[in-house]
Fold this protein.
Amino acid sequence: MKYQIMFDIMMILLSKKKLTAQQIASRYGISTRSVYRYIEELNVCGVPADVARGRYGGIKIADTYRLPSGYFTRDEYAAAINALSAMNSQVSDKNIVSALEKLQRQQKSEKRELSVCGNIIVDGGTWGDSKKFSEKMRVCETAVNEGKSLFVDYISREGEHSKRVIDPHILIFKQNVWYVYAFCHTKQDFRTFKIGRMKNASFTGESFEKRTFTREELDIDFYYTGENLIEVTFEIDKDSLAEAEDWLGIDNITPDKNAFTASLTLPDDGGLVNKILSYGGKVKVLEPQSLKDKVKAAAKRIADGC
């Protein structure tokens, strides 16, 4: 009985409904304490059921979550829905109606496996991420196109974990990374959020009117100012040319005798040193000396630790 209730709660929440613990408890004749225990067990099983308080409070499952594609194939969904629809037309049974509604709701969430922006298919996630990134892109894209507010569970570059409501205005793609430029209700100002750093995202159920902004207002440097951007020159081995072109851009790389050189502006942070080291000596720093020293020091620490 317990697992039947848990499954039923999951299917109701997957219908994009937000319920309070008291509403769920009344529906199944259980205590609110049991409700919270069931929600905790769903989370342990990998179902991101979130308990939020305040204006947007309630229990819901993130809109970026869906059941595994192997739960039902599209043809199986269609066959099951057709069979139940035919049965429901002959026999009036609330259980059949309930099952039919659940299948129809889940079928809708299976229709788009990859986010589509116009004529572009977007799958910017890492290999093997089971399309989780594409689901976040789909939700952000819908929010931008339809002016829908989002409740996001976000982890910043500094490791700060926060939950906030945002009004997405535009999607931005830079350096193979997707961002959303949004008005943040917490900060009462525009912020740029990296979609890959969103743990979960859900529609709040409220819409917003887009605010006007100019291209110049966009935080297009994304956390980097003139103080931490440096002019660099690399020497690139021909064996690593293709990978370096993906990273630095073809336009920034020119032939130079038996190798290639690249001169451009990059953010001077720990990630830059790590990226250079990942090429195993196939990308060498020519300028500036300060960056050369950082790479040497990091390589020495690695060698000393072996």
Remarks:
- The CA atoms of residues 168 and 182 lie 4 Å apart.
